[in-house]
Design brief:
The chain is 68% helix and 14% strand. The protein is an alpha+beta fold and 438 residues long. It has two domains: 349 residues, Outer membrane efflux proteins (OEP) (Up-down Bundle); 81 residues, Outer membrane efflux proteins (OEP) (Single Sheet), CATH 2.20.200. The strands form three sheets. Strands 2-5-7-8 form a four-stranded antiparallel sheet, with no helix packed on it. Strands 1-6 form a two-stranded parallel ribbon. The two termini are 62 Å apart. GO terms for molecular function: efflux transmembrane transporter activity; porin activity. Keywords: Cell outer membrane, Coiled coil, Membrane, Signal, Transmembrane, Transmembrane beta strand, Transport. It is found in: Cell outer membrane.
């Protein structure tokens, strides 16, 4: 086998693994960004846990409301009654009168709370706030998950574009190598240019192999997160890169963020929950008022032990005042007030962080837009520079190093342009996340 044939066989073995993943993943799925968000939210395990938390909070709220209902108890008791012993004089002169051997007792007790110092009302309110907090936590987690999915989705754009650029570059490198070999046969150049061109082609093929492997891995990662078959090769919707984006004023986005950011709304709800705890702590020092009623049917008569049924009933009002709570609960009230101040401070800190996040996303988006405009011009210039250097090399007016450098510059600019286009989309969605729109 000749040296050239050995080199070609080696290049074939190098590029063979790159072709296998693409062949193994022949099934492709076109996935718009809206479908990406829908599947991501539906199959995310963290959101499923948040949904369970919401259901748990709903049950706690129902339990708190049920505490306002009357308490009804029904008791049934029966058993063997031992013979009583009666002493005539002190502990002397004992005798056993006749008494029934079996006893029965049927009781119904009803208690209806009327006033608990606000405990029931504030407990129900607290449970409702906790359910709202769980819903806000789900909303915030869903927005974060959408943004994380979009970041991986944008990575697919870059990988597909990188694959396209490397494939085209390999075709041009093969044509250039063919021309260089012809020029070598004509004696116009040395074998050094042939070897360098072959090495460059090998590097391009290795880069293409790594890009294809990265594409398979990135697609498989999304398949797992979206609940899809892992062998599907996801193809993103390139139309998202060309959608017109109308940027509003910075203050408009800040105002929307203050009103719609789920994290800030959650902190505000926690502040209201702390205020409710203050009222709940105060209610501990107020009296409890309840209405009670009971009915008891018993046999035998407890006082005379006659074998007869005896029925008693009573209705009344129960009032209890927690005297010890008058000084014990004041510390709890102070603690709850400090919790309100602490939550207010957390709100203000979050507003500062939110304003910074909005400003950062706003500037990064504008920066990415300007970068795309600049790189478009650079891409045209790099393409023209490569064309000039190729003509100069073919006419023996430039060396191969200059041509390869021009090709490398063109390749880098094209990849930077793709990355800048994806950043335009991603930074805009970051801005939407900070404003509570995502």
């Amino acid at each position: 086998m000749s040296w050239n044939n050995c080199k070609r066989f080696g290049l074939f073995l190098i590029c063979l693994p790159a072709a296998l993943p693409a062949a193994a993943q022949s099934d492709t799925l076109f996935l718009p960004v809206e479908r990406l968000f829908e599947l991501g939210v539906r199959h995310n395990l963290a959101l499923q846990a948040d949904a369970l938390e919401e259901r748990s909070a709903l049950e706690r709220e129902r339990g708190a409301r049920a505490e306002r209902l009357p308490d009804l108890q029904v008791g049934l008791r029966g058993g063997y009654a031992g013979r009583p012993t009666v002493f005539r004089q002190g502990l002397a002169g004992a005798y056993h009168p006749d008494a029934p051997d079996w006893s029965q007792n049927y009781a119904v007790d009803l208690s209806q709370p009327i006033y608990r110092g606000g405990k029931l009302r504030y407990a129900v309110r607290k449970a409702g706030m906790e359910r709202s907090l769980a819903a806000l936590r789900t909303e915030a987690d869903a927005a974060d998950i959408r943004l994380a999915l979009l970041e991986q989705y944008m990575q697919l754009f870059e990988l597909y574009r990188r694959q396209e650029v490397f494939s085209r570059n390999i075709e041009e490198s093969e044509r250039r190598l063919h021309d260089i070999r012809r020029m070598k046969e004509e004696g116009l150049i040395t074998n050094n240019d042939v070897l360098r061109s072959e090495m460059q082609l090998t590097d391009d093929r290795l880069s293409l192999q790594r890009t294809q492997n990265d594409l398979v891995l990135a697609s498989q990662h999304l398949d797992i997160l979206l609940g899809l078959r892992e062998t599907l090769l996801i193809r993103p919707d390139t139309a998202i890169l060309h959608r017109p984006i109308e940027l509003e004023s910075y203050e408009t986005y800040v105002g929307e963020a203050y009103a719609g950011d789920p994290d800030l709304k959650r902190l505000r709800m926690q502040t209201e929950l702390a205020r409710n705890d203050v009222a709940l702590a105060r209610s501990a020092i107020r009296p409890d008022v309840s209405l009670y009623a009971s009915n008891t049917l018993a046999r035998p008569v407890a006082r005379t032990m006659e074998d007869l049924y005896n029925n008693n009933w009573n209705v009344g009002l129960s009032v209890s005042v927690p005297l010890f709570a008058l000084y014990k609960s004041r510390y709890k009230v102070r603690e709850s007030r400090l919790a309100v101040a602490l939550n207010r401070n957390a709100e203000e800190q979050e507003m500062q962080r939110l304003r910074l996040r909005v400003h950062t996303a706003y500037l990064r988006h504008r920066e990415a837009v300007q970068e795309v405009k600049a790189l478009r011009l650079s891409a045209r210039q790099a393409q023209e520079n490569y064309r000039i250097m190729q003509n100069r090399y073919m006419n023996q007016l430039a060396i191969l190093t200059d041509l390869l450098d021009a090709n490398s510059v063109r390749l880098d600019v094209e990849l930077q342009l793709t990355a800048a286009r994806t950043r335009v989309v991603y930074t805009y969605y970051q801005l939407l996340r900070a404003c509570g729109r995502l």
